[in-house]
Amino acid sequence: MKSVVVAAILAAGFPTIAWAQPRVLGGDAAACSTGGPAIRVNVVGLKDRTGDLKLELYPATEEDFLKDDHDLVRQGKVFHRVTADIPASGDIAMCIRVPRPGRYALLFTHNRDGRNKFNFWSDGAGFPSNQRLGRAKPKLAQAVIDVPAGTVTTTIRAQYLRGFGGFSPIKAD
């Protein structure tokens, strides 16, 4: 019966519904639409729409994970950063290109206070694993993502400081 109704609606000339994908943000947006290699990140659970968003790509090694970007660049190691303003509404997707297919570590931050340094008290963070961050320094395993020859898509849920328990998600989208 349902297929008959759908066929009748289409035959009557009613427009079909096109499910809109969010506009991909960041300076690497084209890499996600042209086949990569890249990581497309769907961001969920933002506390608010203030500040900006950032993705940072690191080597997937304990030694280099979250290391100072200047040191990584000086040593000729992988480091790449993409920032984007937060749209006033709608779903959020960001893209970051990678130098070649492989294993990387990816950090997402929500810079709410406008400074160029992570503010433990107000900013948010997240990783591809979406494990609760708590109070401990993030582990490499939480951030690792494998990137194929094309574009890989992941969803990262933002986490914020929530009392003595440390960082955790605040919203269920």
- Molecular shape: globular
pLDDT average, as an integer? 87
Question: How many structural units, i.e. domains?
Answer: 1
- Helix/strand/pairing class, anyone? alpha+beta
Beta-strand percentage?
25-35%
Structure, explained:
The chain has 173 residues and is α+β, with helices and mostly antiparallel strands. It has one domain (22-168). It has helices spanning 2-11, 29-33, 69-74, 140-143, and strands spanning 24-25, 38-44, 52-59, 80-85, 92-97, 102-111, 124-126, 144-147, 151-157, 160-161, 167-168. Strands 3, 4, 6, 7 and 8 form a 5-stranded antiparallel beta sheet that branches. The protein has a 4-stranded mixed beta sheet with strand order 1-5-2-9. Strands 10-11 form a two-stranded antiparallel ribbon.
What features would you highlight for this structure?
alpha+beta; 14% helix; disordered N terminus; 4 helices; globular
